[in-house]
Amino acid sequence: xxxxxxxxxxxxxxxxxxxxxxxxxxxxxxxxxxxxxxxxxxxxxxxxxxxxxxxxxxxxxxxxxxxxxxxxxxxxxxxxxxxxxxxxxxxxxxxxxxxxxxxxxxxxxxxxxxxxxxxxxxxxxxxxxxxxxxxxxxxxxxxxxxx
Length: 147
Known about the structure:
Helices cover 48% and strands 5% of the residues. α3 packs across α4. It is mostly helical and 147 residues long. It has 7 helices and 2 strands. Strands 1-2 form a two-stranded antiparallel sheet. It is globular.
């Protein structure tokens, strides 16, 4: 048994860097996205599944940060910012790369992948926001050069 605060103090979780995706999270209508995920069901056997929004949030991070499923799973294990955005507790397990890949494949199979991505993009565009590589660019009448 290890001491919980041996590696991290509770105050570390209040660090401003862990809030950098909060504004992005606040921009999206998650209940609407969750309703689009409704056709996906959890299996009655095996381990309990991860919440669908947790898996979808993970896949969004993979897109925004250009991560493979393996890199994304590794980042979810070690990155507190990613865990917070995906609503993964420190003591909870993290989806494996194969889980993320199967979830994406299921979305594609059910023809939900493009619908979900279009919904996210539409929600962001309606607020004049473009999301690229984990950064937000707010677009107004001023031309800007973005990374």
